[in-house]
Amino acid sequence: MDLHLKDKVVIVTGGAKGIGEAIVWNLVHEGAIPVIVGRASSASASLKAQIDEQGGRSHVINTELGKGDVCEGIVKEVVQEFGRIDGVVNNAGVNDGVGLVNGSPDRFRESVIFNLTHYYDLVHYAFPYLKESKGSIVNVSSKTAVTGQGNTSGYAASKGAQLALTREWAVELAPFGIRVNAIVPAEVMTPQYENWIKTLGNPEEVLAGITSKIPLEKRMTTSDEIGAMTVFLLSERSSHTTGQWLFVDGGYVHLDRAIS
Questions:
Q1: 3: in domain
Q2: Which residues are catalytic, by number?
Q3: Does residue 254 sit within a domain?
C-alpha cells in the first residue's frame, strides 16, 4: 500500500533507538524524510549512515529536549533545511522511576519537564508549517497512563497528559486540517525495556510471566509494529482519523487476561 509519504518531512523525537528508530525506518521505506531528534548522538549518526547506504534521506539534530527554547531551534533548522514540516512524532522520554513515596517534588517536576513539556513545545513551534501542509501529529504515550505501574509518578503523569493533549489538540487543530492521534504501547522489547528487565531478580522468569498475559500470540509487541501504525497515522490513508488513542499491544490492556 502506498502511503503517499514520499518526500514528506517528519520530525521524530527520540528517533535513534527503540520505537523511535523503528518509526524512522518505516518512514524511510515509504520514501519520507525523517528528522531524527534527540541526545543519542552516536546512535543517530550510525542510523543516518545506514539510511544513506540504502539510498534514503534523513537529517539529524542532536539536542537535549525539555531545555529552554530548544524546540524553536529544531523547527527553525528543519524549515531552513527542507522548507516544510509534514508531520511530528513526539516519542522521546524515559520511564525514570520517580515515584510518590520514594521520589520528591523536585524530581517529579524534573521528570515532567523531561517527559512532557517538549511534546507541547515542538508542536507549538511547528504549528505554522503543519497548518500549511495540513500535517499530522502522533504522540507516543504508554499503557502506564491508563493502568498505572507503581513507583513512576512523573512518567505516568506525563504519559496521561500526552493522551489528554492528543484529544485537546485534535479539537483545536481540526479547523486547520491537522490530525492528532496517539499510540499507546504496552510491552515492547526496546533497549530501555531490556535494561529494565535485567535489573529484576530473575529476568527470564519475569519476562515469561509478562508474555503469558499478552492475549495475542503470547509475545511482546515489536518496535516495528509500533512504527508501522505510527506511519499509517501520519499518512493520508488515515485521513479521517483524529483524536484517537490506538493501543498496539496484542490486547494486553483491554482483553480479559483469563483468556487461554
A1: no
A2: 155
A3: no
Q: Name 139's Cβ contacts closer than 8 Å, sequence gap at least 6.
A: 90, 119, 162, 163, 165, 166, 180, 181, 182, 183
CB 10 within 8 A of CB 32: yes
The whole-model pTM stands at: 0.96
- Please, what is the angle between helix 191-198 and helix 18-29, to 10°? 160
Same domain flag for 46 and 13:
yes
User: How far apart are alpha carbons 67 and 205 in whole angstroms?
Assistant: 39
Alpha carbon separation from 52 to 23, 48, 56, 164 (Å, rounded): 16, 6, 5, 37
Using CB atoms within 10 Å of the CB of residue 225, give its burial: 0 to 12 exposed, 13 to 18 middle, 19+ buried.
Answer: middle
Domain holding 148: CATH number? 3.40.50.720
Which cell numbers hold the place of 176?
A: 486547520
Residues 134 and 201 in one domain: no
Domain membership of residue 215 as a residue range: 189-220
**Per the structure, how many domains does the chain have?**
2
Q: Grid coordinates standing for 148? A: 498505572
Residue 258 lies in a domain: no
Q: What is the pLDDT along the chain (260 residues), one digit of tens a residue?
A: 899 999 999 999 999 999 999 999 999 999 999 999 999 999 999 999 999 999 999 999 999 999 889 999 999 999 999 999 999 999 999 999 999 999 999 999 999 999 999 999 999 999 999 999 999 999 999 999 999 999 999 999 999 999 999 999 999 999 999 999 999 999 999 988 888 888 888 889 989 999 999 999 999 999 999 999 999 999 999 999 999 999 999 999 999 766 66
